[in-house]
Design a protein that fits this description.
The structure is a single chain. The relative contact order is 0.08. This protein has a domain at 13-328: ABC transporter transmembrane region fold (Up-down Bundle), CATH 1.20.1560.10. The strands form three sheets. It has a six-stranded mixed sheet, sandwiched between helices. The protein has 18 helices and twelve strands. The chain has 594 residues and is an alpha/beta fold. Mean pLDDT is 80; it is low at 1-9 and 586-594. The protein has helices at residues 13-27, 32-65, 70-115, 118-123, 126-168, 170-217, 219-224, 228-280, 286-328, 387-394, 417-421, 438-442, 451-460, 464-469, 487-501, 517-531, 566-572, 574-593; strands spanning 347-354, 364-371, 376-380, 402-407, 410-411, 424-428, 436-437, 477-478, 505-509, 535-539, 551-556, 559-564.
Length: 594
């Protein structure tokens, strides 16, 4: 197993959460020069903005005294324009860097997801994984760029504004600082509460994404069963839960903003009254008083920036915890790296036992099975007998908890995983189709195949005629799950995909189960051509498709209870005989009823 090599953070939970956050941001290599340049420009813009009230003071005092003011007024305009321009350039640099960080982090998360074992996907839901890639990565990228620089700029602006205010008038500054201190004390509980609320909010978003993905991907099932209302109710419940969490977060954010705003307004009122009295008594100039009032807004802005940073920090901490858990998960076991033998060899399951997580009853219990080179072996039995589990173990989607699987004399765990899976061609019942063109789907996983090989694979799968009849031929773009093709066409695309791989071993999992009789016949001809000269393992409910297999194995409760040719098994195994009689008698019984 390959797990993350990063050391586990130690210390308090709060320290661990910050350590995870910093480690994740560091792993995607934020551009230090770009962030530094953005911070310098942003702070320079803030300093230019801080000069604006002072220049206003001088302009007002010059006007009041009848002194020249044009140069001061020109500097005032320059400071205003410079501050705006510098801040805009800093924002552009930060936005560009944030996009890069989000992209690199998403690439890392996607790469990790694709390296996880199949069991991780069996246990989780699609919406949660999509949320990790989209929302959580976005939260971290925003924090590591705009929010950090914004907070730094806010702190510099706040300190600078307070320093200038103290220089202008100490008494009025104390009034302002007292108001801000009271605001921070009142807002502290909301800040602490935000972390857990932000984590719950992200979890609710992920759950809603999972439900919507499931409903939309199975829309035909929903509509055919008249389940629109039930699914609408389920989605509405998730939307309601998400809205509740969003409302909680909004209340906390509004509380922080309101407390900060009230503090500023309270300070402004006091300063206007107190300062106005001092201006009237001649103790304070009108220019100084005007500058002081303008600086109050220079204090309010940074407070909002710092508050926004705190809010985003709580969301990013929750996102980093979830992403760290994902990235620290063990990769799929890549095997011992041994090369796969160049010659065919028997593939044998020896006393294999396997139980799915969360279940008590084993799916396979002491199963023994040998696939001889160049032969066709069929697995038959009731649903839940363990037939598909055999294929999952052979493909190393799961590992046996007891027993072993060998190819020749070596355990299959010793072989390099991609090379091992490269031996197989897998045709599933549901005929999976990936986004892209027909050509993309036929050469899926083998992008270097030329058009000649793609065409030969399509012809071998009896798909060429319908592909060429399409207006765009091999360049026809397929909709989600191949909705613009029939079931038989999708399955022939899948068979062509296997032909293109030229596998040594073919696995057929109910490849014709969902097709009509005429289409099944055409597909069966393509499959027979695919299986010729190869080692084949076939799962089929329709026994007519496997009667000619070299060996048929009857699987019951995770064990093989009988095997042989159709004739031998029919004569010796009561369960198999009952299964055959039931299937082949059904059409006759139906005709008799009519």
């Amino acid at each position: 197993m390959h797990a993350s090599t990063d050391p586990a953070p130690t210390g308090s939970p709060a320290r661990q959460s910050y350590a995870r956050l910093l480690a994740l941001l560091g792993s995607v290599r934020p551009s230090a020069p770009a962030l530094t340049a953005a911070a310098v420009l942003s702070i320079a813009g803030a300093l230019a903005s801080l000069a604006f009230p002072l220049l206003t003071q001088r302009t007002v005092d010059a006007l009041s005294a009848g002194e020249p003011y044009r140069m001061t007024a020109l500097l005032l305009v320059v400071a205003l324009l410079a501050g705006t321009a510098l801040s805009a350039v800093a924002e552009l640099i930060l936005a560009h860097n944030a996009v890069g960080i989000a992209a690199r982090l998403r690439e890392r998360v996607l790469s990790k997801l694709l390296r996880l074992p199949v069991r991780q996907f069996d246990e989780g839901d699609t919406g949660t994984r999509v949320s990790r890639v989209v929302s959580d990565c976005e939260a971290l990228s925003q924090l590591g760029t705009q929010q950090v620089v914004s907070a730094c700029t806010g702190i510099v602006t706040l300190v600078g504004a307070v320093a200038i205010l103290a220089w202008l008038d100490g008494a009025l500054t104390l009034v302002l600082i007292g108001s801000v201190a009271v605001a921070f004390v009142l807002a502290a509980p909301a800040v602490v509460r935000m972390e857990s609320v932000a984590a719950d909010l992200q979890a609710r978003k992920a759950r809603l994404g999972g439900v919507l993905t499931q409903v939309f991907s199975e829309i035909r099932l929903v509509k055919s069963h008249g389940a629109e209302r039930a699914e609408a109710a389920r989605c509405t419940a998730e939307v309601g839960d998400l809205a509740h969490q969003q409302w909680r977060m909004s209340r906390l954010a509004i509380l922080l903003e309101s407390v900060s705003g009230l503090a500023v307004v309270f300070a402004l009122v006091v300063i206007l009254v107190y300062g106005g009295m001092r201006v009237g008594s001649g103790d304070l100039s009108m220019g100084t008083f005007t500058a002081f009032v303008l600086y109050i807004f220079s204090v309010a802005g940074p407070l909002g920036q710092i508050g926004g940073f705190v809010t985003e920090l709580q969301a990013a901490k929750g996102a980093s915890a979830r992403l760290s858990e994902l990235l620290d998960a063990a990769d799929e076991d890549a095997g011992g790296g041994t090369a796969v033998p160049g010659e065919d060899a028997p593939l044998a399951l020896q006393a294999v036992r396997f139980t799915y997580p969360g279940r008590v009853r084993p799916a396979l219990d002491g199963l023994d099975l040998v696939l001889a080179p160049g032969t066709t072996t069929a697995l038959v039995g009731a649903s839940g007998a363990g037939k598909s589990t055999v294929m999952s173990l052979i493909l190393r989607f799961h590992a046996p908890e007891a027993g072993r699987i060998v190819y020749g004399e070596r355990s299959i765990d010793a072989f390099d995983l991609p090379a091992w899976r490269g031996l197989f061609g897998y045709v599933a019942q549901h005929a999976p189709i990936m986004p892209g063109t027909i050509r993309d789907n036929i050469r899926y996983g083998a992008a270097d195949l030329d058009d000649r090989r793609v065409r030969e694979a399509a012809e071998a799968a009896r798909a060429l005629s319908f592909i060429e009849a399409l207006p765009e031929g091999f360049d026809t773009r397929l909709t989600e799950q191949g909705g613009n093709l029939s079931g038989g066409q999708r399955q022939r695309i899948n068979i062509a995909r296997v032909f293109a791989r030229d596998p040594r071993i073919v696995l057929l999992d109910e490849a014709t189960a969902s097709l009509d009789t005429e289409t099944e016949h055409a597909i069966q001809q393509a499959l027979e051509r695919l299986m010729r000269g190869r080692t084949n393992l076939v799962i089929a409910h329709r026994l007519s498709t496997v009667l000619g297999a070299d060996r048929i194995c009857m699987l019951e409760d995770g064990r093989i209870t009988g095997s042989g040719t159709h004739a031998v098994l029919y004569a010796q195994h009561a369960g198999y005989r009952a299964l055959v009689d039931r299937q082949f008698a059904a059409p006759s019984a139906s005709r008799a009823d009519r």
